[in-house]
């Protein structure tokens, strides 16, 4: 099991990809060589032989007519055998040495000698044969030529080459090489291009296959950051990635338990506070001083408002409302209409058709908190929705005094209120902005505040589109 786990690691997969690329490159090179050099020849009736040479650390493909050393060796061996044999034995020697890719014949017609080519493979063959016969005594005269295009008695293709060896007694041995190439095939370049092409294709496919589970992991991890109720990540991919996914899944479970415990604790504390508050209300009734009794009742109402707000938020969290596709324009419009019906001055200039995935009840609460703050502290609210490429922003403007820059983050703290004694009628619980930011961040966005140049405050809910 441990060995199988190691073979499934990223390092093992990369190594396997490289090895496979090399092997397929070699196979492709051999296959291309077969197709390019042999298919046409076979269709022309060529029965020449191709040899595959396997040695330590090397694989070679050699075709006799394309290999000057092998071809010249066969020609020189034939010439030496014929030169040292009696004239009567030469026809048998020539017949034994004839092959499909190298025809050998005694020339009895006395063909004229031809000078060798000054370049190309035929010239190289001429030189090789001549060098190997330099020490032969008596000397042998070598000449080469390419047979002209079809049209005479010899109906041979234009690529046919002839090498003529004139022996000391004047008899000639003619070596006919059908389909002899003019220039050496660029096998090395073909091989390198094949290796490069196959290696690139294999590398791209392998990288894509390796990166797919990583991309899925990144997407799922990003979704987890905004939705703890998302299903656990599927464990797939290399060993290291599966271990990471298991860790993230365990982290998600721990976070879910932590949030559930926190929500239950808040709900329990808020619920348990109702009993002592009820007793305090009864005792306040016994206070003779009306002014003191009024102030105590006011404090009790504020505490009840805090408890109600906390319980409402805890209930929404405990319900774990599922996400759904919602038209944010309609949702914000409904919130603004409700605020207007309650007596607030609210102007909504947003548009419909802005769909986002969210928890509708939670998102409605976040928007309502900002609109209520604008109505309460800014005299009214002007609401708009701005759509960018990847973000949707709900903008809530008011004409109030604004918030100093050094306090714009402090107001997001739970139960934080800016000097409520200045206007007790407008003193809130201090949870509106905190809840709005919590909701926005759970959806992958945020809530920010900024003072407007013309006066007033802008509250922005930024959400992913």
List strands and helices in order, with pairings.
Blueprint: H1 2-7, H2 10-43, E1 50-55, E2 58-63, H3 68-84, H4 90-97, E3 103-107, H5 120-132, E4 141-146, E5 161-166, E6 172-177, H6 187-226, H7 239-284, H8 290-319, E7 324-327, H9 328-341, E8 346-348, E9 355-358, H10 360-378, E10 381-387, E11 391-397, H11 432-442, E12 446-451, E13 457-464
Parallel strand pairs: 8-10
Antiparallel strand pairs: 1-2, 3-6, 4-5, 5-6, 7-9, 10-11, 11-13, 12-13
Provide a descriptive summary of the structure in words.
This protein has helices at 2-7, 10-43, 68-84, 90-97, 120-132, 187-226, 239-284, 290-319, 328-341, 360-378, 432-442, and strands at residues 50-55, 58-63, 103-107, 141-146, 161-166, 172-177, 324-327, 346-348, 355-358, 381-387, 391-397, 446-451, 457-464. It is an alpha+beta fold and 465 residues long. It folds into four domains: 2-46 and 185-206, no CATH class; 66-177, 2-Layer Sandwich (Beta-Lactamase), CATH 3.30.450; 227-320, Helix Hairpins, CATH 1.10.287.130; 322-464, 2-Layer Sandwich (Heat Shock Protein 90). It starts with a helix and ends with a strand.
């Amino acid at each position: 099991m441990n060995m199988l786990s190691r073979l499934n690691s990223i390092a093992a997969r990369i190594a396997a990809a490289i090895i496979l690329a090399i092997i397929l490159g070699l196979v492709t090179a051999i296959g291309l060589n077969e197709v390019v050099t042999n298919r046409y020849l076979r269709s022309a009736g060529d029965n020449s032989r191709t040899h595959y040479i396997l040695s330590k650390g090397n694989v070679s493909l050699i075709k006799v007519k394309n290999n000057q050393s092998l071809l010249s060796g066969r020609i020189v061996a034939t010439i030496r055998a014929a030169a040292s044999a009696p004239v009567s034995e030469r026809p048998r020697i020539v017949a034994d040495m004839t092959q499909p890719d190298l025809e050998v014949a005694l020339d009895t017609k006395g063909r004229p000698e031809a000078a060798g080519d000054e370049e190309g493979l035929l010239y190289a063959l001429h030189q090789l044969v001549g060098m190997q016969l330099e020490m032969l005594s008596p000397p042998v005269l070598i000449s080469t030529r390419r047979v002209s295009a079809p049209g005479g008695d010899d109906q041979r293709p234009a690529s046919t080459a002839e090498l003529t060896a004139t022996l000391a007694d004047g008899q000639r041995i003619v070596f006919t090489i059908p389909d002899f190439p003019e220039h050496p095939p660029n096998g090395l370049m073909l091989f390198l291009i094949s290796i490069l092409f196959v290696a690139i294709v294999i590398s791209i496919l392998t990288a894509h296959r390796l990166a797919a589970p990583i991309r899925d992991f990144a997407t799922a991890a990003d979704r987890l950051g905004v939705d703890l109720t998302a299903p656990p990540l599927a464990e797939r991919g290399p060993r290291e990635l599966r271990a990471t996914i298991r860790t993230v899944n365990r982290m998600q479970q721990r976070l879910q338990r932590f949030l559930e415990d926190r929500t239950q604790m808040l709900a329990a504390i808020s619920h348990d506070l109702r009993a002592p508050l009820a007793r305090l209300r009864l005792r306040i009734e016994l206070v003779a001083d009306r002014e003191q009794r009024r102030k105590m009742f006011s404090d009790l109402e504020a505490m009840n408002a805090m408890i109600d707000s906390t319980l409402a938020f805890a209930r929404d969290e405990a319900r774990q409302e599922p996400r759904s596709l919602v038209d944010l324009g309609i949702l914000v419009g409904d919130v603004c209409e409700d605020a207007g019906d309650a007596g607030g001055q609210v102007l909504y200039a947003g548009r419909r058709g802005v769909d986002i995935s969210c928890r509708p009840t939670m998102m409605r609460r976040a928007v309502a908190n900002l609109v209520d703050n604008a109505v309460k502290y800014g005299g009214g609210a002007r609401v708009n929705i701005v759509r960018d490429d990847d973000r949707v922003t709900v903008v809530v403007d008011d004409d109030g005094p604004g918030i100093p820059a050094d306090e714009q983050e402090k107001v997001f703290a739970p139960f934080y209120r800016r000097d409520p004694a200045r206007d007790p009628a407008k003193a809130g619980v201090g949870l509106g902005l905190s809840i709005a930011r919590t909701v926005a961040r759970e959806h992958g966005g945020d809530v920010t505040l900024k003072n407007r140049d013309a006066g007033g405050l802008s509250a922005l809910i930024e959400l992913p589109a």
